Amino acid sequence: MRLSLASLGLLLMSAIATPADFPPPDKLPSAAEFPDVLTARDGTKVTTRKEWEEKRRPELKALFEHYMYGRFPEKPKQVTAKVLFEDAKALDGKGTLREVELTFGPPEWPKIYLLVATPNDKTPAACFVGPNFGGNHLLTPHEKVRVPTAWVPANYPGVEKGTNKATAAGRGKQADTWPLRQVVEKGYAVATFYCGDVQPDRPNVREGMRATLPPAEGGAPGDETATVMWWAWGCHRAVDFLVTDKAIDPKRLAVVGHSRLGKTALLAGAFDDRIAVVIPHQSGCGGAGPSRSKNPKAEPVKRITTVFPHWFCGHFSAFGDDTTKLPFDQHGLIAICAPRPVLLTNAEDDQWANPPGQFDMLAAAAPVYKLYGDDRPVAAKVPEQGKLSDERLGYFIRAGKHAMTPDDWKVYVQFADKWLR
Prior knowledge:
Elements: H1 49-69, E1 80-90, E2 95-103, E3 112-119, E4 125-132, H2 180-185, E5 189-194, H3 195-198, H4 227-242, E6 248-258, H5 260-270, E7 277-281, H6 301-307, H7 314-317, H8 331-336, E8 342-347, H9 355-371, E9 393-398, H10 406-419
Parallel strand pairs: 4-5, 4-6, 6-7, 7-8, 8-9
Antiparallel strand pairs: 1-2, 2-3, 3-5
Helix pairs in contact: 4-5
Protein name: Acetylxylan esterase
Domain 4-O-methyl-glucuronoyl methylesterase-like: 225-373
Signal peptide: 1-19
């Protein structure tokens, strides 16, 4: 099920704040509690869908760009696709496996290599799409799947220490993180790419899509496009292809990501209405976890912006000592997805990702969903461990730690069975 926003493209730009209107972080007023998602910056209360779509929603998107993720890059004029290989007898004969090279700029720009698995007996299929951490080759032993040539973190299987080059020794070593056959057998397609195709996960190196833009004036950080935003933009380029693929149902796309790529999935869903369902898994601080955290075991803004400064734009680090000055919290990003379903999934032992705080974000986003006629978009309380709450703002928490597993995928499929039928 995919619900469109009738007035997209007809926004009243005069009513939307521009970056020039946004004060420096230290000049913003403090708000100890989560800002009301239906109260605009000028203090007016949003009471209708029209007001939400024309004023508050674009205002929130602009705020997230300016103070957190950086500028949303322009859509390329054209995305071209080249099939590198196709195997109709892959996944033990259950599906067709393809790898598609996506080109979207000058020859020197990076390319995205999208691994697509589709069921042989059910097309066009609903599709889970999202980035992976170490390369498509980690997800299958198939010898034709490309080994990435971009920089790869040293902790992934088969990566040469010192050079950070991926090798064929890693083939199939992390297949459980994106269990292609398991998902295809349930009638769903899967499309995934190495996040480093778009932007390698390291700071202070002008590589990937970061190298296509000029440095900030004077070298001073601000609202420059940050890595999580680049990864989300990469998801959108994958969607550009998927909506043209006859094996995929363009109205039934679900974006998925884990941890830092869970942050990416939520941002990608918020900024692209072609995505019908949004599933950020264990996304934590900077994702579905609140910046104004009440969980002492959760990762704080100051820590994440110190250790991973490149994930966010320069302005976000200014809130590390005082998150009360943020003019939004992460429920605003969830609300931007309305009325599309969002599922937050977590693990009990992974308090660093702030599972209880994430549920608070769903509850705080619910008023926007009510504008679309859903009077009960979220459960009244956190569901018991191991039980899916499949409301439009869904929630699931299991036993265990920080990981994406085949059991997690069973939950994604269960949620999709309700909302993508």
